[in-house]
């Protein structure tokens, strides 16, 4: 198995979602909370979850680590980053998650991106949609 290497990405840690300028290639997907002030235009807006940000991050950690070939790279300052590898070629995608307090609950900032290649066949979009759907199910009261 190929280990994750810090040389694979040039993203700063922790990732600043407000100043993020996403990769221009169609190999990434960005979700931001409703009304979040950022330089980037999100690909999708996060639902609002009834649970607190810490509970949302705990649920997402369980969801992420429950997927095959996924490892937590780091978790600090309320932000977590995961590496998920493709089944056949073991290409690495990085997924950064951070929950923010929003309307008495929380909303998610998430950035999933391929580290190699030009196009990802919407793998990153489908991953974040799947993880958000699972978190909504765990929440039971997401709007």
UniProtKB/TrEMBL annotation:
<dbReference type="Pfam" id="PF07386">
    <property type="entry name" value="DUF1499"/>
</dbReference>
<dbReference type="InterPro" id="IPR010865">
    <property type="entry name" value="DUF1499"/>
</dbReference>
<protein>
    <submittedName>
        <fullName>DUF1499 domain-containing protein</fullName>
    </submittedName>
</protein>
